[in-house]
Amino acid sequence: MAGLIVALVVLYVCDWAVWQVRVVRGGGMGSVTMSSIVVMPLKDNKEEYDWGGTESVSCSRSLFPQAGDDACWWLRRHPVVYER
Question: What does residue 4 show for φ and ψ, rounded to 5 degrees?
Answer without folding.
Answer: -65, -40
